[in-house]
Specification:
The protein has 175 residues and is mostly beta strands. The protein has 2 helices and 13 strands, in the order E-E-H-H-E-E-E-E-E-E-E-E-E-E-E.
C-alpha cells in the first residue's frame, strides 16, 4: 500500500499497523474518489481500532464475481470477529476492471490464488487469507483501487464504485 503501513513484527507474533499517513492525505484524495468509496474510506470508525465498525480483524468469508453482459460486479462478504464486531461487512463493487488475490508463500514472496501453500490452514482444512489488517482506497483512472491486507495475503480491486454495508448480527436473545 502507498500510505497505510502493515508490517509483520520481527521475532514477535502480530503486525505493526499505521494508517496515520493515509489519514493525513485522505482529505486531498476524497475529491478523486467515487461517492461510495469516499464515504467508506472517510468513515470515522474505519481505522478506529476500538470501534466495532473498524475493518481490522474481519475475515473474508465469501467472494461473488458476476459478469452480467460485460458489467462485472464483485461482492465481498467479510465475517465479524466475535470479540470485536457487532456484525460483518458486505462490500459490493460495480464496474470491476481488475481483481486479484495473492497469498504469502512463506518465503516472503507471493503465490497466486489457490496455487498451493501460503494460505492459513484452519482445523477444517479450508484455506484462509487470515484476518484483515488494514486497507487503502485510492483514486484510479477507472474509479478507484482498493487494496486489502490480510495476515496471510492481499486482495486488490479496481472498480467504478462500491457500496459498503455493515450487517447487524442477531443477539443470542433474538435467536
Amino acid at each position: 500500500m502507498k500510505y497505510v503501513h502493515v508490517r509483520p513484527l520481527q521475532d514477535l507474533y502480530g503486525f505493526h499497523l499505521d494508517p496515520q499517513e493515509y489519514l493525513r492525505v485522505l482529505p486531498g484524495l476524497l475529491p478523486g474518489l467515487p461517492a461510495g468509496a469516499a464515504e467508506f474510506a472517510s468513515d470515522p470508525d474505519h481505522y478506529d481500532f476500538g470501534s466495532s465498525r473498524c475493518v481490522k480483524d474481519l475475515t473474508l468469508e465469501r467472494v461473488d464475481l458476476v459478469d452480467d453482459r460485460g458489467n462485472v460486479s464483485l461482492e465481498l462478504s467479510l465475517a465479524p470477529n466475535e470479540w470485536k464486531h457487532e456484525g460483518g461487512l458486505s462490500i459490493r463493487y460495480s464496474g470491476v476492471r481488475e481483481f486479484w488475490v495473492k497469498s504469502d508463500d512463506g518465503a516472503g514472496g507471493a503465490g497466486g490464488f489457490g496455487a498451493g501453500g501460503g494460505f492459513v490452514e484452519r482445523g477444517d482444512g479450508v484455506p484462509r487469507l487470515g484476518d484483515l489488517q488494514l486497507d487503502e482506497l485510492l483514486p484510479h483512472s477507472h474509479g478507484f483501487s482498493h487494496e486489502i491486507a490480510f495476515t496471510e495475503g492481499v486482495l486488490f480491486v479496481v472498480s467504478a464504485d462500491l457500496v459498503a454495508r455493515w450487517e447487524r448480527q442477531a443477539s443470542r436473545s433474538e435467536i
